[in-house]
């Protein structure tokens, strides 16, 4: 059952919390652009500068600076009012997944969860945030920093009293169907790695149509040049090669889970809630 209204009558503030620069482009860029266009205040917070990501630049301070510059460019394309970096170290990813052993001493995954939550809560309180996005419990595909975003974000919302928490995710069901089809042509593709990634369709509460903001979403992706070049199989690079009409179809929906509404609710706007029984 749909709520009677999908848009708040007055501007609100939404804080989008991500692990690294470019994560916002992949999961929430369309929603961010939509809310900004509607007159809401959109804040982008990252836990790290992504200095251990794959790029033509060697991992380290220079890469972190480059990726933060890209983040500001992405934020401008989406209409963000503010960008905040919590300043933790990028934890990196071990070969094959999992926690890297050579992570920096200030790695986000090793941060005290309560202290990190207080730092994010300070931003939420200062901004009088009405909404916070985090990630699903799996951290999407399981990156340790993404899992930490889920933990820290949920606790920060509790500390700040932020009323709406949405877990940014992907509908796993069509993703698995597509991967199983692709395996016919690429037998080496490991579909099992995605069987517990992201969220099932029955868990998802919000399906946000962002096709009208495909141009801004694509600009957000393109801003992260260090993450779109250097290899033929880079995720962003592949996405940016998708033709416009197909791009709007494939990337025109963004998914969220809100835990305090019934699972599977068919909500279409971040501020929408089910009608009271």
From TrEMBL:
SUPFAM superfamilies: LmbE-like
Keyword tags: Zinc
Keyword Zinc: yes
One Gene Ontology term of the molecular function aspect: hydrolase activity, acting on carbon-nitrogen (but not peptide) bonds, in linear amides
Organism domain of life: Bacteria
One Pfam family linked to the record: PIG-L
InterPro entries: GlcNAc_PI_deacetylase-related, LmbE-like_dom_sf
Entry's Gene Ontology BP terms: glycoside metabolic process
Name the UniProt record assigns to this protein: GlcNAc-PI de-N-acetylase
Lineage: Bacteria, Bacillati, Actinomycetota, Actinomycetes, Streptosporangiales
